[in-house]
Amino acid sequence: MWSLTRPDAPQDKPLLVVDDRVTAATPEVLEAGVTLGMPRREAEALAPFATVLTRDVGEEARRFEAVIEVIEALIPRVEVVEPGLLFVPVGGAVRFYGGEDIIAMKVAEGIAGYGEALVGIADGPFAARWAAARSAVGDPVIVEDTLRFLRSLDLETLREGVASDSLIATFRWLGISTLGDLAGFPRDALATRFGHEGVLAHKLASGEDRNALPREIADELSVEMEFEDPLEHVDAVAFAARNISERMLQRLRSNGVAPHQVSILAQPALGEARERIWRSADPFTERALTDRVWWQLRAWVEAGGVPGGITRIRIAPFDLSGDGRQLGIFGDEAARIEAERALARAQSLLGPDGVLEGRPQGGRMPAERVAWSRWNESAAEIERDPGAPWPGSTPKPSPALVPPRLRPLEVEWDDGMPSRVRLGTRWEPVLTWSGPWRLSGRWWAGERDADRYQIVTSAGALLCVVANGKSYLAGVYD
Amino acid sequence: MGKLEIDLAAPLLDGPRESDFLRLQPGKITELVGETGAGLTRIGLSLLAEPSRSGPVVVVDTRGWISPEAAWETGVEAESLVIVRCHERPLWSRVTAALIEGVPAVFAEVPVGMKDQDLRRLGALARARKTLVAFRPMGPRLPAGVSHLRLRSLGITWEGADRGHGKLKGRRILLEASGKGAGGITRRFEVEDGGRKIEQVEDESKNPLRLVSDVVADQARRAAG
Description:
The structure holds two protein chains of two kinds. Chain A has helices at 27-31, 40-46, 57-74, 91-97, 100-110, 125-133, 146-151, 158-162, 165-173, 179-183, 187-205, 234-253, 286-302, 333-350, and strands spanning 15-18, 22-25, 51-54, 79-82, 85-87, 120-121, 141-142, 223-231, 261-268, 274-279, 310-319, 355-360, 370-374, 407-408, 411-414, 417-423, 426-439, 450-457, 460-467, 470-477. Chain A is α+β, with helices and mostly antiparallel strands. Chain A has five domains: 2-55, 3-Layer(aba) Sandwich (MutS, DNA mismatch repair protein, domain I); 59-205, no CATH class; 221-324, 2-Layer Sandwich (Dna Ligase, domain 1), CATH 3.30.1490.100; 335-374, no CATH class; 407-477, no CATH class. Residues 211-217 and 321-331 of chain A have low confidence and may be disordered. Chain B is an alpha/beta fold. Chain B has a single domain, classed as 3-Layer(aba) Sandwich (Rossmann fold). In chain B, strands 1-10-9-8-7-2-6-5-3-4 form a ten-stranded mixed β-sheet, with helices on both faces. The longest helix of chain B is centred in the middle third of the chain and has 14 residues, at 89-102. Chain B is globular and about 50 Å long. In chain B, 53% of the residues are buried. At the A-B interface, helix 14, strand 12, strand 17, strand 18 and strand 19 of A face helix 2, helix 4, strand 4, helix 5 and strand 7 of B.
């Protein structure tokens, strides 16, 4: 709810702060049914009385910087998720201060002057975030049994962890209303039905929060920029932020990884270097990383945290956990780019119809069962459901060679049975055959019925269609 | 589904195993020799199944007839498969070179009348790029030195059809492996394209292997999804 603390927010009015989704709302708006993370239009429909403000994250980051500094003075290694939400590992601090309750109170007291501070402590960031949500100002929630706590949470809490409305809607349709219900399902079943998102949701519901597995990060993955003229203006800082973020992600892509956390370091012309860690539940995308770097640098510049301007920026990824690996269909990102370049080159030589992709679709003949589309264009629309039974379809195995159109084929028949087939200039005796299988044509479209045969010769097997007394080649089992 | 397995019934003699013949090697060209109908298109497509799980794979189709459905049945991932149709012989070597340079695995039909020089260049390019490549010449064999392994189809036997009854179910392809990839000796083995175990019918190297093959799957992986 950090967004609500902005200075230009009208006092004593119901407020709704949004980007594409709701990022903050006053209690009256929440009572109307609005939830955080809800799509903007849905929220506006539920709370038409609310004043809607568009979120300015950069400005929020600048104001949040003071809060971070207070907490950092108490506990090191602050991880900023977004302005208004941060995590701190408290394992070491518990030993230092003597208890979780003491830490919670110290944090709450330290930031009390900056707004309504909610503090929660639990095993893992996901549980801690919702523990904080259940706390009240001056009354932190310290979760003893994290698993039990998680199981009591509403399914809606997954929205931040999984960010899939359709997944949550499907779970609800299946009768799942709490994380406890979800944890009761076998993970294998969720993996089969919902894939990676389903597994992630189940892990969160089961108390297996993102397991950060810090790896040795090679120095070359860090990116550094030095400036002869210190950066003092936000425009120059914005440009540098974009540049350095792109460079770092390019390096990471070639290694097939993406970070969950980045450390942003700025060296001022005067004084000591400033460093801040930003974290994301999902691996950072280029846009997300550029935003974080920009927010952080802007916050330092505008708050006077980098006296004399910035002379050096360094970004280092230091949590490339397994979940952070962005291995898409083409696995390694560099290989994917190279392959795309090669295919684009082939397409430039052959024309757009020379490079094609196929998708399975339903149909009774082999030629019907492929939906073709040009490579690098939107995938072809599937006209017929491939999962439907398709009675009368030619059996598998499918012919490996299928002419685009039926081709005339000379077949010699003996009392209704194929006896010889002309292949090129020679006649091949038929060794055996199967069929005929009737193919009923769409009479309303002028199609006639046809018979299909699988004909085996010493030169191979053919799929043959006989219609109107003529024989056609429909495929070669090569 | 769609992968070839080897069941070792006895210790192997020295030299490459038959299972390696049906797996593309980085930078080494596998040549598939045989007439249309000899069963080699499907064999070539099945060679792409394994690499398709980790990256894009490309089929260069010179006739416009190759069906991706057969590739899916052999285990090739639908989303990884790209079909490049190249009917013009003058363009074929340029297109294929571009693909070998950038795509991890390529199965290409080689049109009739290609210059030896062009084919050798492609061989060198594949070696340099460590690309997985299978060539299926539509005409004569590739010139010497281009392919590392040559698989020649000696015959194909279909099962399942019986004078109007049944349907084609499986096939047996007798293959002859030769070249460096076969250890410099000619070896024959049989692949069953249907998922059942068979005995190796001819074994010049006295290598008592039993080949297990399920090149033909009952159902396409992607279609089922």
